[in-house]
Amino acid sequence: MPKVAEVKAKADSLRKTLRELDKLTGADVSRERDADRKRQERDVRRIVVIPQLTPEQRARREFLEQDDCVWLRHFFPDLFWYEWQPQQREMIEAIRHAIRAGDDQALAASRGEGKTKIAERELLKYSLQGVIKLSVLFAATGSHAEDSLQSIMGEVEENPRLLELYPEVCVPVRALENTPNRAHYQKVSGFRHDNGEPYEAASSKFSWCGQEIVFPVVPGSPASGAIIATRGLDAAVRGLNKRNRRVDVAIIDDPDTEDSARSEEQAAKLMKRIDHAIGGLGGQQRGVGRVIITTLQSRIAVSYQLTDPTQKPSFKGKRFKFCLKRPERMDLWEQYIQLRKLDWDNERKGSETNLAWQFYSTQREVMDAGSEVANHYRHTPAQLSALQFYFDEWARKDEAYVLTELDNDPPENIGSVESGITPQLVQRQVSGFDEGIVPEGCTVLTHGIDVGKYWLYWCVRAWRDDGTGFTIDYGRHPVLDTKKGSDEGLDRAIAQEIQHHLAKFRDKPYSEQLRDSLTLVDAGYRTDAVYAACRQAGLGVMPIKGFGQSAGCVKIAWHEVVRRTLDKVPICDGVFKSKQGETGGKIWLICAHADKWKAWEHDRWMTATDKPGCMFLWGKREDGDRLSNDQFAHGHYAHSICAEVEVEDIVKGALIRKWKSKAKENHWLDASYYADVAAAIKGIRVLAGQVVKSRPKPEDRLSARQMKEKARGK
User: Fold this and answer.
1) What is the DSSP string of 280-293?
2) pLDDT, tens digit, for every residue of 104-136?
3) Could you tell me which of 273, 258, 665, 682 has the C-alpha nearest to residue 467?
């Protein structure tokens, strides 16, 4: 049997003999010529000739690009076939501004209003014009974002009007003939769009598939190399850049999921992603323009927060309603809804009726009176008006659906009933006085300090005898000389910062104005340091601990605290003092029922401003509903006050009250209720809205000995 080496040697010898034979007969030359011919044919097929625009086409393209509404109507007549409505024009203008300026914009429009199609095609327009070079389409999931990208790609591939006026993009894409791999070796020839000079066999170097597309790199094309990428909001986006480009525009379509629309925790995570991860995608010279296109699902949802200018002012939120004004005769529409349901029931039973349509058609003028809809074209051929469509949806689903999905005004959540306090309510409660000014009639000054490792949060209030409070000053100070990850020297740093802050407080003009004051300092964290600082501060400064089930307090039921403490001295309902510390270094600790006093704090903000017991912030207000600069400045404080809310739940038929945390930053809420407890210790009361008799002035007060002598008749 021959060896392998011998077989290989014979094969090589045979190949050599065949090559010599081909040279003698000329067969090798023929094969080379055939290969060259086929190569040339392939090169010809790879070269795509792009037609040059005529002067008339160029002028028409420039004219259309000047007005987004005109551009959209011209290129997409099947989508935007009716006259633009005012709300749609406002949406288009808001998106245009955000894209061109790299600004934020949040728009909530009714389901089916075409907001997503408008945003997608606005993105295409400004990519074709070369205004944006890298944009990202975000949606709740990656598959939803890819659907939007497919919609844009379909227009470039099939839209004849785009082909006519944007051949430098559409012709190379169409030449792929649904074979994306051809883009890797495609070459283009033609005349440059910018200066008219010719070019030949230039590599187009583009991509037309997957999660992102790259527009053909055509010499002189404004869109050359522009990228549109897609991402789900559940994917990693930090540091996203392509070809050393940072993101110019992020279109975020319907960011909320069922989870984020129902869970405050999930909503907070999503908001952080939009604020931090997506908000940081821009470059040094231009920030990323974030455009939120959405329909509200609930008052918890991220979309609700983004479209609320008081919560997220940078997004300049706009909410558009389907029904701007409801009709005057809602009683007739209630009858219509019942008839519509009856029609469907009859249809189910096999006997079709049209009672609702007949009812509306015979008295349409009366039923439409007083109503106003945003878009008169929003109805099917079977319906007579957009208003009928609105109430058909009401009948098909319910009122909550039309309020939420069509009017972007979701009702309050059903289930747990919250106290009703909101950051906006707190922000609007301004007194008209400047910061640090004590209003006339105030007799007591109180000061609450919440202690943390890195910050002291504080709140100063002036009180009238009827329980009306004025928050005249608040803020926070850093605790200096603390180390992250270590408690070394922490007690000393906290004690020094408390003393430093108290010294600054006593130097304030309002502290000089109202000598009758009390400061309560949180002793729930680093208790010994707080005790030491309070001992050194002397009169008018006492430590405080909150007990209860709400956040930031000692988790012991109030009745247990009262029962366990033997040396308690009651002060008022929900407050007593207890001696703490060792012999010679004892100090009175204020013990407060935290749940009760946080509720008392919220009650003050929800008391009418013309009633005793109302709470005010310093600052001026604007006329009308607009928030003043002072009211806007109180946003962080207001959200801290509402970081926890009292809710009522029905559990097994019983009414249960409990506290729910809505945010971690509750420090000013703690500092504020400490100031409330201090006011109670100083004798401030609110009794059913009636004014309590003024307390005696210090010089008029009797000592315990004098009172005994008076009782004996001396």
Assistant:
1) T-S-SSSPPEEEEE
2) 999 999 988 889 999 999 999 999 999 999 999
3) 682
Q: Which residue among 299, 319, 339 closes a domain?
A: 319
DSSP string, 647-681: EEEEETTEEEEEEEE--S--HHHHHHHHHHHHHHH
Q: How far apart are CA 511 and CA 518, in angstroms?
A: 10
Tokens representing 688 are 């059913």
Q: Of 526, 499, 520, 540, whose CA–CA distance to 590 is shortest?
A: 520
- Is residue 101 within 8 Å of residue 94, measured between CB atoms? no
Nearest CA-CA partner of 138 in 242, 226, 255, 246: 255
Q: Are residues 148 and 224 in the same domain?
A: yes
When pLDDT is averaged across residues 33-62 and rounded to a whole number, the result is: 77
Domain that holds residue 509: 423-543+595-692
- CATH of residue 538's domain is 3.30.420.40
**Considering the entire predicted model, what is its pTM?**
0.58
Higher-confidence residue of 456 and 40: namely 456
The answer to the question of residue 170 being in a domain is no
Show contacts of 432-436: CB within 8 Å, 24+ apart. Answer: 432/619, 432/620, 432/621, 433/470, 433/472, 433/618, 433/619, 434/618, 434/619, 435/472, 435/473, 435/618, 435/619, 436/472, 436/473, 436/508, 436/509, 436/510, 436/618
Encoded amino acid at 547, one letter? F
Q: Are residues 59 and 45 in the same domain?
A: no
Strands 517-522 and 469-478: unpaired
pLDDT of residue 568: 83
Strand pairing partners for 593?
547
Say if CB 636 and CB 619 are below 8 A apart: no
287 domain residue, yes or no: yes
Q: Is residue 564 part of a domain?
A: no
Work out whether strand 134-139 and strand 249-253 pair parallel, antiparallel, or are unpaired: parallel
**Mean pLDDT rounded to a whole number for the chain:** 85
How far is the C-alpha of 614 from the C-alpha of 620, rounded, in Å? 17
Number of H helices, E strands in the chain: 27, 27
For residue 712, the model assigns a pLDDT of: 46
Whole-number Å distance between alpha carbons of 695 and 218: 85
